[in-house]
Write a sequence for this structure.
């Protein structure tokens, strides 16, 4: 059950990030790296 919830949120968030990257100015690589760092930080803080 938890795996399905995690998978669902992962797919939703990746879709949102893809849409945001289309809208944001600049190189999407740097935005992607920024989102990865922020996501990793949030996961690290929550545990």
């Amino acid at each position: 059950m938890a795996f399905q919830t995690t998978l669902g949120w992962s797919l939703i968030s990746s879709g949102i990030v893809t849409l945001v990257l289309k809208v944001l100015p600049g190189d999407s690589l740097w935005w992607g790296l920024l989102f990865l760092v922020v996501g990793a930080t949030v996961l690290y803080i929550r545990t």
User: Anything to note?
Assistant: The mean pLDDT is 75. Helices lie at 2-23, 28-46. The first helix runs from residue 2 to 23.
